[in-house]
Automatic annotation (TrEMBL):
CDD domains: EcCS_like (cd06114). This is Citrate synthase. GO terms for cellular component: cytoplasm. InterPro entries: Citrate_synth-like_lrg_a-sub, Citrate_synth-like_sm_a-sub, Citrate_synthase, Citrate_synthase_AS, Citrate_synthase_bac-typ, Citrate_synthase_sf, Citrate_synthase_typ-I. It comes from Paenirhodobacter populi. Belongs to the citrate synthase family. The active site is at H269, D327. The gene is gltA.
Length: 392
């Protein structure tokens, strides 16, 4: 027996100390290792942000080159994994495939599963950062019946991912540099977000000593839900379902109706009660990408813009401090790039992997670390005697 604090949804419990990411939800502020997300999105690039999150400081030129070289060396997956992919149904959701394949990495990379060995932890980190784009792209290629495309190590991280998704052996594919930049920015904006559901899942899984591949697979599984990373897919599907600007009021009314479970996807956040700073950058990126691709009259986009305008002026959304979040705009960019909605959450997952590993490494190297073991308030039956089946 004991007295426990009851905190459903963990709205007021800090589960750990961390030096990685800082969020001030009232100010709409997000810092990675102290650096504002807006500055990183404008001046940095994804692999530099990975280094920063993993190591705590920005790299000098030599450290950056070594890091890039190391990640690049690990971009291919074990050839036997191709067969593992082929065991899935072609119409499997790429997230389902990723949960399986990433979990299965522990069956392929035995030399980086010993969590007590710092060197093995390091190698596992590189492998995960390097291979997640390859795995996500393979899941996509498999789902559309095209051959897997091997990584190209002469390309940057984001450009290589686009290459693996959109190239086919039959003709050359040149990654448009502006799209690679936009993809890189999406990755940076998703790289970490402190103790959200999937990150807490990774930490909890890791606290038992489970290997890093198993922990990241757990994170991917948790991310999939529509209240979390699955919101980007759900948001675009919602915009399509609304279909035209004149139907927006109907959906706004549904979102406000207490008896209707419908929510405006891409709106609201547990921590941000002011604008999501990632959404600001993402919105600007969306405008740039659509301009670049000459997309102006896209009906989904028109619905998105009008929905945003109406919701930002509506008393319900204003009083509950529900603003568009990062997922509201990312889907618009990804759709314009040619990704099907089923790839939106895998792209979130591959971008967040570095945050998960950074948090996992921090957790595992904390000498005061103990297994995560939440308590509960038991509300079930008191002790009672077993009743024979004929007497029930
Ligand atoms: N549409 C309509 N009403 C909403 C919405 C929404 N999107 N979000 C919250 N509310 C209402 C909710 O009904 C509740 O009303 P009341 O106080 O009258 O009961 C109030 O606002 C507070 O909502 P909550 O569910 O207690 O808030 P939460 O902090 O537990 O949930 C959330 C946060 C993000 C899960 C929620 O806002 C939501 O479901 N949003 C839609 C899904 C989404 O876009 N998720 C992505 C989040 S950002 C990226 C990520 O984390 O992966």
């Amino acid at each position: 027996a004991g007295v426990f604090t009851y905190d459903p949804g963990f709205t007021s419990t800090a589960a750990c100390e961390s030096t990685i990411t800082y969020i001030d939800g009232d100010q709409g502020e997000l810092l990675y290792r102290g650096y504002p997300i807006e500055q990183l999105a404008e001046k940095s690039h994804y692999l530099e942000v990975c280094y920063l999150l993993l190591n705590g400081e920005l790299p000098d030129r030599e450290q950056m080159e070594t890091f890039e070289r190391t990640v690049t060396r690990h971009t291919m997956v074990h050839e036997q994994m191709h067969n593992f992919f082929r065991g899935f149904r072609r119409d499997a959701h790429p997230m389902a495939t990723m949960v399986g394949v990433v979990g299965a990495m522990s069956a392929f990379y035995h030399d980086s599963t010993d969590v007590t060995d710092p060197r093995q932890r390091e190698v596992a980190s590189f492998r995960l950062v390097a291979k997640l784009p390859t795995i996500a792209a393979m899941a996509y290629k498999y789902s559309i019946g095209q051959p897997f495309v091997y990584p190209r190590n002469d390309l940057g991280y984001a450009a290589n991912f686009l290459h693996m998704c959109f190239a086919v052996p039959a003709e050359p594919y040149h990654v448009p540099p502006e799209l690679a930049t936009a993809m890189d920015r999406i990755m940076m904006l998703h790289a970490d977000h402190e103790q959200n559901a999937s990150t807490s899942t990774v930490r909890l899984a890791g606290s038992s000593g489970a290997n890093p591949f198993a922990c990241i697979a757990a994170g991917i599984a948790c991310l999939w839900g529509p209240a979390h990373g699955g919101a980007n897919q759900a948001c675009l599907e919602m915009l399509r379902q609304i279909g035209s600007v004149d139907r927006i009021p109907e959906f706004i009314a549904r979102a406000k109706d207490k008896n209707d479970p419908f929510r405006l996807m891409g709106f609201g956040h547990r921590v941000y009660k002011n604008f999501d700073p990632r959404a600001k950058v993402m919105k600007q990126s969306a405008d740039e990408v659509l301009d670049l691709l000459g997309i102006h009259n896209n009906p989904t986009l028109q619905v998105a813009k009008e929905l945003e305008r109406i919701a930002l002026e509506d008393d319900y959304f204003v009083s509950k401090k529900l603003y568009p979040n990062v997922d509201f705009y990312s889907g618009i960019i990804l759709e314009a790039m040619g990704f099907p909605t089923s790839m939106f959450t895998p792209i979130f997952a591959l971008s967040r992997t570095v945050g998960w590993i950074s948090q996992w490494k921090e957790m595992i190297s904390d000498p005061s670390g103990r297994i995560g073991r939440p308590r509960q308030l038991y509300t079930g039956a008191p002790a009672r005697d077993y009743v024979e089946v004929d007497n029930r």
